[in-house]
Amino acid sequence: MNRLILRATACAALMSAALLAAPQVRAEDAANPDYAAIVAAPDRSDADRQVDQRRQPAEMLTFAGVKPGMTILDMAASAGYSTELLARTVAPSGKVYAQDSATVLERFVKDKFDTRAKAPAMKNVVHVVRDYDDPIPPEVKDLDMITFFFFYHDITYLPVDRAAMNKKMFAALKPGGLLVIADHSAKTGAGTGVAKTLHRIEESTLKQEIEAAGFKLVAEGDFLHHAEDPKDIPVFKAPVPIDEFVLKYQKPQ
Fold first, then answer.
1. What are phi and psi of 222, to 5 degrees?
2. Does 36 have pLDDT greater than 90?
3. A single GO BP annotation from the record (predicted)?
């Protein structure tokens, strides 16, 4: 009996030594996804890979700080390009709410989102069809992040109460939650005046509107800046890369 006890004790000691000798995985490393690998996933579509060339999704996910387990609202999800990337990143335990208005879905997106939603990568996505100035279901609270990519300028010429929309986004975030917003740059002084014709918005105008809701600017990304863009050409007809700004806001703790 004593011999068995001694043998068990020796085995336990050897296991403990092996565990101590093994390289330890830091919590911060485990929480930081390999964004490049997510973008390079073999089951992503060729069409999305074409969009990657101008959207730089690995840099965007890194800048935003998207992590597994997060709950995120993707405003103006459209056909779901960004929604799917977010869903892949927050998986397996996170969730993404993909918002769009019924009017935009019917006129411009048709069944594109529904087709994408059938993919396994979208299993943690909830499609939210609501108006932009009332975008969040009442049961959705304490979001970790809201993303709003390249559509805020369109909101400015639609019948949307932007101040109400921004306040509701603010309210839906948990304290310390983030709003990451990107759009096409307009010339200084243009405001929202070229939103419908050029599909651009002046950065300072967008900042003023977002900050009026209580958001605090915490970071600005330069990875989509293109100084060669004269900012006076419609986005969809520009012969050069479009200058775009990326902003990260936080709801104060």
1. -110, 10
2. yes
3. methylation
